[in-house]
Amino acid sequence: NLRKGFIRPSSSPVASPVLFVKKPGGGLRFCVDYRALNNITVKDRYPLPLIKESLNNLSGMKYFSRIDIVSAFNNLRIEKGQEYLTAFRTRFGLYESLVMPFGLTGAPATFQRYINDALREHLDIFCTAYLDDILIYSRTREEHIEHLKLVLQRLRSAGLFANPSKCEFLVKETKFLGLIVGQEGIRMDPAKVETVKNWKTPTCLTDVQAFIGFGNFYRRFIRDFSKLTAPLNRLTNKDVPFIWDDTCEKAFVRLKEAFITAPILRPFDWTKDVILETDASDYVSAGVLSQYDNEGRLHPVAFFSKKHTATECNYEIYDKELMAIIRCFEEWRPELEGAPSPIRVITDHKNLEYFTTTKLLNRRQARWSEFLSRFNFQITYRPGKQGVKPDALTRRSEDLPKEGDERLAHQSQVVLKKENWQLPPLKVQRARIRQPHRQGSIPIEEPILSLELPEDISRLLDQAYKTDEDLQSILQALEEGAPRHPKITLAECKVIQDRLLYRDRVYIPNYDPLKTALLKASHEHPIAGHPGRARTYDLLSRDYYWPGMLSYVERWVKNCHTCRRANPAREARQGVLKPLPVPERAWQHISMDFITHLPPSEGHDAILIIACRLTKMRHIMACKGTCDAEDTARYYLKEVWKLHGLPHTIISDRGPQFVAEFWKKLTQQLSINSLLSTAYHPETDGQTERLNAILEQYLRAYVSYLQDDWSRWLPLAEFAANSLKSETTGMSPFFANYGFNPRMGFEPTITVKGTPATRDAEKFAQKMNEILEYLRSESIAAQARYETQANRHRRPARQYREGDHVWLDARNIKTLRPQKKL
């Protein structure tokens, strides 16, 4: 582009980011993310032509030619003095565009104005132009050749060139803007209804339910719908065997015909608003294009579905749902490009609502974002249960992969190669217990002294460097000063102490033993504590990087047997969620709770947990189940007060320690507000209950078979819990309290030079204040999300008045009756 004169070096004060994405046929495509510029650009309202009006002139025409303009937008120059607005950042400096690039919101309208000016003498006489698509039509062959010459001359004068591979000349029928135009007139492209027309005969009850669910939306347009579907509805009745007979087949065929003919299916009307409903399953993307009629009833215009490739089956659900939107816009580009009012895109994936404002995109998403920039649309969320039409098109059994399908190759549960399996094959044999062990009969070393560090990561890294050809090519490209590399962004790479760093993280070669050692360190090691996939990924990605690391971590955690054994099943809570106020500062509001009835361990049989409600930091102490209010106060004085001082509020359950007279007087004298949870309702202090569950999960993963060593693991459990990122705040409790993350012991040995930390007291205080403000804002946002999610399927508590007759739940009330079951 620099040699062509399309771009030039720039000193612009503004710039947009760039990405290189792979083209379907190979090679790289240069993309600029102009979303920020588009948001502040005054929209050009120059209209795209109304296709319905343009096609009215085709009556009686016998010969047609279709011309596609090559690199259409790049033929127009940016207005002089405005080039700086198109500036973009690269590894080699700042550049700005001299020609109209793809991705600008005003590009379609600008080019339409230009092509209209170029062909103005001939428009609607023997040609029509819709952006870079031109249709020429004539009554005779001789007349058509003359018309074709005139159009080509005008294009040459305007500096526009045709793309021969996408053109058709002197044909009697051609496809133009999603329609088939020819001597016989204009008709709808069969591809628009092919998805429904080729719907295969149902083979199971699920297929029948999906087909009926799809049809229910259009039942008001089909005469005798209930009568037509009666044979199919009969198959859905309980205790009715699935037998597909001729009656069912006839009903199925008649319904398909009804779906793709009037009055249900309507031709596209460019003057009306557009509704695009999309959905994606593991194996299929689908969409339904619809418009409202004059009576406000929604009619379909076209249907679409497409199976995923084996690679696409491995996409995250976010990308699959986004790909469904992209495919629909690609399929119906002529109808959707240049829409006068925003196209309402409806999806059942809520996070897609924020796609147009997301700052961090991967290469695939950046390519899609550039494509979507030419459309006027708004993404709207709708729960999946309400999206029957596209949902039914993605869940037909005919589209599911059969045995041997390459799309199933990405579903493997195996993370490690056989040579990396840690355990030998299990053998089943009869076991006899001759004499039970008593407490203390098995000597157990201190857990801190018996920790085994993971394999020598440096040694494994050296081995990996010798085997990974991709890494060697990256290092060579950096050494030679190459401008780009197909596998990685060289601008974000550097070499320190013979190690490749990507975004200041050690780049890990494709070597399974090394990845295994790192996963063991960041997931299985006691200082990590078997966290979930998000926290494991956060812990590992602080210092290391390799392509596909997130999916690798997800598969590892998913297949961790210890996690499956230790993690409890969680059910949704009942009752409307009412979050507690967010504290103003750290350790201002705390929560306390006991875990009791544990096996004896070094004279202890209970655990006291004290946690900060803002930073989520916790202190964990082994104690006795007989611990009273005075003992609890002593534990706080010894372990917490010396570090954080006195709180304003303490939240606890109604344990005997917290309802004792001593505790009441103590908190009153110290001006501490003691808040007790509702009886038999632990959700009041949901944070502490969740912390208890995390601790119990940790201990289940590491305690011995006799469970008499749990107290020795508590220091490591506390460290692991405080060093992992909180889902509420987005940072670890350790960082929230001290402003940095702790050293874990498996960080890289090299030192990455970064911004030096200031020791200025004022700046440090300002930094901590910013952290506290961030914690509060994130906590408030998290509470709002939790409240919305928790209350979605619940209702407020019923209001009672004095004198009302009510039923009493006696599960927690002692009575004289022998059994509560009867």
TrEMBL record:
Signal peptide range: none
GO BP term, pick one: DNA integration
InterPro entries named among the record's database cross-references: DNA/RNA_pol_sf, Integrase_cat-core, Integrase_H2C2, Retrovirus_Pol_polyprotein, Rev_trsase/Diguanyl_cyclase, RNaseH-like_sf, RNaseH_sf, RT_dom
Any one GO molecular function term: hydrolase activity
Keywords: Endonuclease, Hydrolase, Mitochondrion, Nuclease, Nucleotidyltransferase, RNA-binding, RNA-directed DNA polymerase, Transferase
Positions of the Reverse transcriptase domain: 2-181
Superkingdom in the source lineage: Eukaryota
Entry GO terms, CC: mitochondrion; nucleus
Classification via Pfam families: Integrase_H2C2 (PF17921), RT_RNaseH (PF17917), RVT_1 (PF00078)
Main location: mitochondrion
Integrase catalytic domain ranges (all copies): 577-741
Cellular localization per UniProt: Mitochondrion
Name of the molecule in the record: Reverse transcriptase
